[in-house]
Amino acid sequence: MRLASLGAVVALVLVPVPVAHAVPSIEWATCGPERPGFECATFTVPLDHDRPRGATTSIALTRKPATDQARRIGSLLFNPGGPGASGVEYTWAWGNRMSAGTQGRFDVVGFDPRGIGRSDPLRCFANDQERAAFLAAGPVFPYEPARERPFFDRYRSLASKCDKPIARHMSTADVARDLDLLRRALGDRKITYFGHSYGSYLGTTYANMFPNNIRALVIDGVLNPELWSSGRQIESDRVAARKVLDEFFRLCDEAACAFGPQSKQRWQTLLASVRAKPITLNGEVWTYDRVIEWGLFAGFASESWTDVAALLDQLSDASSAAPAASEPVYDNFFDANLGNMCADIEFPRTFDAYRAVSRYAAAGSEFGPYWWWSTSACSDWPVNEDRYTGPWRARTSAPVLVVGTYYDGSTDFAGAQAVAEQLPNSRLLAYAGWGHIAYRRNQCAIDYIHAYLLDGSLPAVGTVCAANPNPFLDAASQLAERDFRRSTGPVASR
C-alpha cells in the first residue's frame, strides 16, 4: 500500500536535474471593508511541478501585515488542516490572535491549498443540493452488513464524478512545492510555518522535502506520516476517539453532568436502543450512525462537552419514542478532502478488503467504522504520481516543535510522539488535556508556541502543559470556540 507509482525505471543510475521554477510575483490588495486589516492576493503556480512552463493553477492568499514593521521577522504561513479546510477563512478568524501573540512581528499568511476553497476548487457535484442528495442517499457510515456493499459502490463512484484536471495534482507533495514557491515569493530565505491537524502532515512533508529551508516549524494535532501516507491511519482512528470518550464519561460523572451518573453505561444503552430503532427528538430523526457522529464530536472540542452531554441525555430519555419518517456559494470541503486524501494514499481496491478492514476498525471501538468507510471513495481513484511517501527522518535546518494533546479524538498523542522520534531535530511539547489542537484551548501551549515562533526557543525536554480544569466544571471554557463545528458531510476534518 505504500508503493508510489514511479513509472518506468531506467537500469542506469541517472541523477535527475530539477527544473528551475520562476518565482511568481504577488500583488496584494485590501480584502474589502468586511475584512479590515487583511490583504488578499492570488498566487499562480504550475499545475504540474514537473512541467513548470505548462498549465498553471491559482492559490488564494490572505495576510495580516506585521504591525511592528521595524522589528518584522518575515511571514508566518498557516494551514488549519482538513484536508479541505480554507486557510484563508481560518486566517481571517485566527490571524489577529496569532499576530498579537507574536508581537506583531510577522505577516500572518493564510492560503487555500490547490483545489480547495478559493484555489481552483475541485467540484464533484453541480451544487450543494446535489452533494446533499448524495450524502442523504445512505447512512453516514454502514453499520449494518447489508448496507456495506451499497455504501462502497456509491462512494466508489465518486472517482469518476471528481475526475477533473486539478484532482490529478492535489497531493500534499504538490502543496509543499507550492509552499516553497510561496516562501520565495514572500522574500523569506527560510520558512516559518504553523500547521494544525492535517496541516501537521503538510508541515512534516515540507520538512522532509525541504529540510534546509526551515526557520521555525510548528505542528499541533499531529498525524503520524508513516500511518497516514500508507493508508494505515485506521490503526489510530479505531481507538483514539474512544480514549477521549472514556475521559468524557469520567469527568462527566465527576461533575454530575447532564448525562450522568453512570454516563458510560447510559451511552452503551443508548447505542443499543438507537441501533434497534431510530430515536425522534424534537421532530428530528436520530439513527445509530448520527449518534456515533455526535459522540465523536466530543473528541474534537472539550469546550462543547456540556452541549454533547445535554443532547445525549435528551436522546437517552427519548429512546422509547417512535421513529419519524437562490443557490448558496458552493462549499467544496467534502470534494477537496477526498481529492487530497485519495491523491496521497493508495487504499484497498476491492469491497472484500474494505469489509475486512471495517471488522478490524470496529474491534477497536464503535468509532472505527465511521473513519474507515468514507475512504472507499478512494478505491477507484488514481493516486498522484508525484505524492511523497517518505522517508520521514530528515534532519532539518532548525528544530521542529511538535505539539500533541493526550486526549485528541482526531490526531492522537501517539502521532506526535512518532513524529518527534522520526525527526531527529525536534522537540515534543505535550498538553495533558482534552480536545483537538492545543493552540485552540491551552494558554501554556500557546505561550510556548509563540515564544518558539519568535526566537526559536524550545520548551525543556519532557515539558507537559497541565490540563485545563474539568470542562464540565469550568464555565469559562464554555465560552471558547462555541462556534466550533465540524464541516458538513461524513468525513471529519483533521
Lay out the secondary structure.
Blueprint: E1 29-30, E2 39-46, E3 56-64, E4 74-79, H1 87-101, E5 106-112, H2 128-136, H3 145-156, H4 158-161, H5 172-185, E6 191-196, H6 198-209, E7 214-220, H7 225-230, H8 234-255, H9 263-276, E8 279-281, E9 284-286, H10 288-297, H11 305-317, H12 333-344, H13 351-364, H14 368-373, E10 400-407, H15 413-422, E11 426-434, H16 443-455, E12 464-465
Parallel strand pairs: 4-5, 4-6, 6-7, 7-10, 10-11, 11-12
Antiparallel strand pairs: 1-2, 2-3, 3-5, 8-9
Helix pairs in contact: 5-6, 8-13
In short:
With about 500 residues, the chain is of the alpha/beta class. Helices cover about 40% and strands about 15% of the residues.
What does this 3D model show about the protein?
By secondary structure, the protein is of the alpha/beta class. It has a domain at 29-122 and 172-230 and 390-466: Alpha/Beta hydrolase fold, catalytic domain (Rossmann fold, 3-Layer(aba) Sandwich). Helices cover 38% and strands 14% of the residues. The chain has helices at residues 87-101, 128-136, 145-156, 158-161, 172-185, 198-209, 225-230, 234-255, 263-276, 288-297, 305-317, 333-344, 351-364, 368-373, 413-422, 443-455; strands at residues 29-30, 39-46, 56-64, 74-79, 106-112, 191-196, 214-220, 279-281, 284-286, 400-407, 426-434, 464-465. The strands form 2 sheets. Strands 1-2-3-5-4-6-7-10-11-12 form a 10-stranded mixed sheet, sandwiched between helices. Helix 5 (172-185) crosses helix 6 (198-209) and helix 8 (234-255) runs parallel beside helix 13 (351-364). The longest helix has 22 residues, at 234-255. The model is unreliable at 1-18, 321-327 and 476-491 (pLDDT under 50).
